[in-house]
Specification:
Number of helices: 7
Strand order of the largest sheet: 7-6-5-8-9-10
CATH architecture: 3-Layer(aba) Sandwich
Mean pLDDT: 92
Helix content: 40-55%
CATH topology: Rossmann fold
Strand content: 15-25%
Radius of gyration: 17 Å
Shape: globular
Structural class: alpha/beta
Number of strands: 10
Distance between the termini: 42 Å
CATH class: Alpha Beta
Length: 214
């Protein structure tokens, strides 16, 4: 039986909740670096500690790339969360791998892109998480400045903020994610990580994260 993207997204959501890579706490919100109060916290780097989950995510990345981007010339991971994921994907596809720093190195060659890329090469960018899309698009810009043709970006999870959608659209960078916020909430409810009473609050945060009140 072939697994559909819908089935796969639900399985990824279940894995992320199971290992607490994503935590949902509407009654005890987290404080993000931006100062936003949030009912959700995401650290997808935890997936790397679980071989079965790590393998599944790698396979889903490879499936998306094969389906949507044919075979690119290079895989690029975004520091730091996309580095290990990207290297695993590149290894599976037998492709070169590079990673993009959050800012240029302050010594030596002042590189922003670490590894070897050449002008005109087709690149797919790997991320672990999309919030506003700012840091991800900074990586896309760095690759384009080196003459690369960025075909698109693939990430494990997105909050689905309108700001990220607009930013990626303006940058002409197609995004595919293995799982998203709405799917996560659906799976969390099904497996009793949250209750029906939490739904309204979680949906409100998703619409207006900057003004959300628990």
């Amino acid at each position: 039986m072939t697994m559909t993207p819908f089935d796969s997204a639900h399985k990824v959501a279940e894995f992320l909740l199971q290992i607490k890579a994503i935590k949902l706490q509407p009654d005890q919100p987290f404080i993000w670096a931006s100062g936003w109060k949030s009912p959700i916290y995401c650290d997808n780097r935890k997936t790397l500690s679980y071989p079965q989950i790590r393998t599944y995510i790698r396979q889903q990345f490879v499936n998306v790339i094969n389906d949507q981007f044919a075979k690119p010339d290079v895989i690029a991971g975004v520091a730091t969360g996309g580095i290990a994921q990207g290297a695993l994907v590149a290894q599976d596809l037998g492709l070169p791998f590079v990673y993009v720093r959050s800012e240029a190195k302050k010594h030596g060659l002042s590189n922003m892109v670490e590894g070897v890329v050449e002008k005109g090469q087709n690149v797919v960018v790997i991320e672990d998480l999309i919030s506003t899309g700012g840091s991800s698009l900074k990586a896309v810009s760095a690759l384009r400045e080196m003459g690369c043709n960025v075909k698109g970006m693939v990430a494990i999870f997105t909050y689905g903020f309108d700001e990220a959608t607009e930013n990626l659209k303006k940058a002409n960078c197609p995004l595919t994610t293995l799982c998203d916020y709405n799917t996560l909430i659906e799976v969390a409810l099904k497996h009793k990580y949250i209750s029906e009473n939490d739904l309204d609050s979680l949906k409100e945060w998703r619409k207006s994260p900057f003004s959300w009140k628990q």
